[in-house]
């Protein structure tokens, strides 16, 4: 029996609960910088300079990239990039000016961009500029790892069309005059609308916007409804490879895993995901689909990303809770109370694995420190160890919550800003609507209580949680878990753990960590990467959690082109097509 491709059709995708696309402007701020707004929404319309992921492997797809492979000079400090002459939907040709426009904005507004890290791109550039109409150059302040530059720096760039270079008063020229970048940024952010507001009314205007309707990807936005239904149609002016087969791609909002699963059962969606508690991997291999509750009508595809999962702890909290968080031994005790093996085995039913530090365990690589791999992390699950850490540092753990009985900053004392009589108690906000995450958080709460740490749980809508509990000075949240973490390009730590980084969710600042991170980006030496990750694992600036497939995708049996899964989380629905079975 052979499959006959069908041209056209509509595919409907059920989105993760609580995460509608919140930003269309690809200069996305840290509080909304994530897979949902970028990889599953913006990049369908606006192609980045380099496309991450090729045929399921963690590498650059040169065919889908707007830029050609960088060419380096003999000093190793200057690279030039030729821009492919793709077309914008308004007829403009993609060019060097579109990259310079982006770079000028990044130079002026870098701290408001989610991938920005202080001291790195573009701060580490001596100069950048237009070499020819189709070529740009970048000169760095010293020689860096070429892999790091490509994967972690140049991938930040999304060329922007001339049509976006304007303010409320009309056309501007931030492309050639960097002084105008601030005003253009303010205009474009106003066109986007409030990035925290959850009301969809401002998003309904995106499809008809003279700004956002200028695209260079294979899709354009047809509509965004008040109910959160996003509809894409093929960009008829797309000039890159792999034009769309489908007539429409719809993305529908869901409020819970259960509702999303009901949509799959009813046939109302063709791409969704199996609630984690329903998927069972009896062999314990999370990379392979186990028995499918939906039967033969769907394909079960685990989405294994090059990522880590963690919960953030707020170093900038100005209360005594922040003083406790700033004590390494307390964070180490919290990590020792997290039973990751239980989560992988029981909560995620074999579709999970322990995350021992800041480098992804899967897909397997030689990037993980052997020292960490051999011991299962610096702080594996050990309640007695947690109790000992607290007892050794001034806490009476005979009751729960433990009570500070030795205040002060000397040996064996609790630490600065922790008065006698303080109870060891934290609030933990987590993403609502995810039963598996709720179960994992309840287990963490119960185990922590056995060690003398009180965890007070509160469910919060996912997008609100990310917006409110992000980086920032003197925020009041204490522990925060959105059930995920970070998808790496190349797993150095400047985005997550560098002091002042836009996505340093814990607001952690540590001079030694900054020094070790700096080493990882100037050499391809694995020893530098090992030293960095061992320090992070020991300090526990976040609480590492079991990692699992981001989703157990359920794909309609007659829909092809969905796999291989991109390890960075990007999607290519232009490759999807329906088939009819022929005997």
From TrEMBL:
Give the keywords, sorted.
Signal, Transport
Presence of keyword Signal: yes
Q: List the signal peptide residues.
A: none
Tagged with keyword tRNA processing: no
| Transmembrane regions | none
What sequence ranges are listed for the domain Solute-binding protein family?
69-503
Q: Which Gene3D superfamilies match?
A: Dipeptide-binding Protein, Domain 3, Periplasmic binding protein-like II
InterPro entries from the UniProt entry: SBP_5 (IPR039424), SBP_5_dom (IPR000914)
- Cited SUPFAM superfamilies: Periplasmic binding protein-like II
Protein family according to the UniProt entry: Belongs to the bacterial solute-binding protein 5 family.
Query: Which PANTHER family does UniProt cross-reference here?
Result: PERIPLASMIC BINDING COMPONENT OF ABC TRANSPORTER, PERIPLASMIC OLIGOPEPTIDE-BINDING PROTEIN-RELATED
The protein's name in its UniProt record: Peptide/nickel transport system substrate-binding protein
Question: What broad taxonomic lineage does this protein's source fall under?
Answer: Bacteria, Bacillati, Actinomycetota, Actinomycetes, Pseudonocardiales
């Amino acid at each position: 029996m052979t499959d006959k491709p069908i041209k056209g059709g509509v595919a409907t995708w059920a989105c993760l609960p609580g995460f509608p696309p919140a930003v269309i402007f690809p200069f996305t701020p840290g509080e909304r910088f994530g897979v949902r707004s970028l990889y599953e929404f913006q990049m369908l319309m606006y192609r980045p300079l380099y496309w991450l992921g090729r045929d399921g492997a963690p590498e650059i797809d040169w065919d889908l990239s707007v830029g050609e492979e960088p060419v380096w000079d003999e000093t190793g400090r200057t690279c030039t990039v030729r821009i492919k002459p793709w077309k914008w939907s308004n007829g403009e040709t993609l060019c060097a000016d579109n990259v310079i426009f982006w770079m000028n904005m990044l130079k002026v507004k870098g701290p408001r961009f989610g991938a920005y890290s202080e001291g790195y791109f573009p701060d580490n550039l001596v100069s950048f500029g237009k070499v020819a109409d189709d070529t740009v150059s970048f000169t760095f302040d010293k020689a860096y790892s070429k892999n790091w530059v490509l994967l972690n720096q140049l991938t930040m760039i999304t060329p922007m069309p001339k049509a976006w270079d304007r303010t409320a008063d009309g056309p501007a020229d931030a492309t050639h005059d960097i002084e105008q970048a601030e005003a253009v940024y303010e205009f474009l952010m106003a066109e986007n609308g409030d990035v925290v507001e959850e009301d969809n009314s401002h998003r309904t205007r995106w499809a008809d916007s003279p700004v956002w309707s200028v695209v260079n990807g294979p899709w354009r936005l047809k509509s965004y409804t008040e109910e959160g239904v996003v509809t894409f149609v093929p960009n008829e002016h797309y000039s890159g490879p792999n034009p769309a087969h489908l007539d429409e791609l719809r993305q529908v909002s869901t409020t819970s895993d259960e509702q999303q699963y009901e949509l799959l059962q009813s046939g109302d969606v063709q791409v969704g995901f199996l609630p984690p508690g329903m998927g069972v991997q009896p062999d314990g291999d999370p990379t392979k689909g186990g028995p499918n509750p939906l039967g033969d009508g769907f394909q079960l595809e685990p989405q294994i990303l090059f990522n880590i999962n963690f919960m953030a702890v707020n170093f900038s909290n100005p209360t005594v809770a922040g003083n406790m968080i700033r004590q390494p031994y307390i964070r180490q005790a919290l990590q020792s109370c997290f039973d990751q093996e239980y989560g992988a085995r029981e909560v995620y039913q074999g579709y999970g694995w322990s995350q021992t530090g800041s480098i992804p365990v899967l897909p397997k690589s030689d990037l993980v420190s052997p020292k960490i791999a051999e011991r299962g992390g610096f702080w594996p699950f050990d309640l007695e160890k947690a109790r000992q850490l607290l007892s050794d540092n001034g806490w009476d753990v005979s009751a729960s919550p433990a009570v500070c009985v030795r205040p002060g900053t000397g040996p064996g004392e609790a630490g600065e800003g922790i008065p006698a009589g303080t109870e060891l108690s934290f609030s933990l906000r987590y993403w609502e609507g995810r039963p598996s995450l709720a179960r994992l958080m309840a287990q963490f709460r119960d185990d922590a209580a056995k060690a003398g740490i009180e965890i007070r749980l509160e469910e919060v809508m996912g997008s609100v949680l990310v917006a409110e509990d992000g980086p920032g000075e003197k925020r009041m949240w204490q522990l925060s878990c959105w059930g995920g973490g970070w998808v790496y390009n190349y797993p150095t730590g400047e985005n997550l753990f560098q002091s002042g980084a836009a996505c340093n969710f814990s607001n952690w600042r540590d001079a030694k960590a900054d020094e070790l991170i700096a080493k990882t980006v100037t050499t391809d030496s694995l020893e530098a990467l090992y030293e960095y990750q061992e320090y992070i694992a020991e300090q526990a600036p976040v609480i590492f959690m079991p990692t699992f497939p981001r989703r157990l995708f359920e794909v309609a049996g007659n829909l092809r082109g969905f796999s291989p899964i991109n390890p960075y989380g990007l999607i290519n629905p232009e490759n999807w097509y329906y088939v009819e079975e022929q005997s």
